[in-house]
Amino acid sequence: xxxxxxxxxxxxxxxxxxxxxxxxxxxxxxxxxxxxxxxxxxxxxxxxxxxxxxxxxxxxxxxxxxxxxxxxxxxxxxxxxxxxxxxxxxxxxxxxxxxxxxxxxxxxxxxxxxxxxxxxxxxxxxxxxxxxxxxxxxxxxxxxxxxxxxxxxxxxxxxxxxxxxxxxxxxxxxxxxxxxxxxxxxxxxxxxxxxxxxxxxxxxxxxxxxxxxxxxxxxxxxxxxxxxxxxxxxxxxxxxxxxxxxxxxxxxxxxxxxxxxxxxxxxxxxxxxxxxxxxxxxxxxxxxxxxxxxxxxxxxxxxxxx
Length: 306
Fold this sequence. Notes:
This protein is an all-alpha fold. The protein has one domain (56-300): MetI-like fold, CATH 1.10.3720.10. Helix content is 71%, strand content 0%. It has helices at residues 2-33, 46-53, 57-86, 93-105, 108-118, 126-133, 148-155, 169-195, 199-207, 212-223, 225-240, 244-249, 261-271, 275-300. Helix 3 packs across helix 8 (169-195). The two termini are 39 Å apart.
């Protein structure tokens, strides 16, 4: 009897050891580092006070929020619409699904380098070439630290206040890349959710004379709500942890407008070698994501039940 009770624990022991070594221990070690100075001495909450008052944390948090607002809703909406199109009976459907998934499995660094060429402000940049065809002045793209709303207002002859400047054009370049790069994953999840919707429900809606928008609003969206909740949580976490594309697509002169929390951690870690400050920012980021995830699950839990 004792052997039968111990057997399940033996099966999960290897996975538990991996979690302990590579997840649980680093988590508590990072928490411990956030209370220590350069020399390893205990400094209590000094690192947290320094982070919250040094003037870098709040702008980085604001940039992270702009990145979240600019990528998550757009990516979820576009991927949901494309998934609905791919769910129809189309020729070469497998080919289209493969094409849309390819960006997600492509190396982020390699793809970001290609998008740097697309947004190149120099002669030959694809984006500026398109603007030239449209009769619009070329832009500095990932060199530009001015907010996009401020740039649009300037073009229209409007003088917008600083709080209405919006995210920088450099950050928008990274947003566009992020939306393109994550579409494949979101589409696959939506396709899996759509495949679980019973066809009898749509047949009944057709008999009742329901229109396409009505079917989408009353049938499709409620039944794919669990997938939507999952993707929204994953997307929010991913947006706050974004590093590669911002690091690759940002120039030094626009760094102040693209430094999100992940970049702030990197700069503290490898720029000043202040490990205590870096881990303090990481702990604060973990707390922010934990609160956001809990709130989202609380608000959407009842609607996401299958």
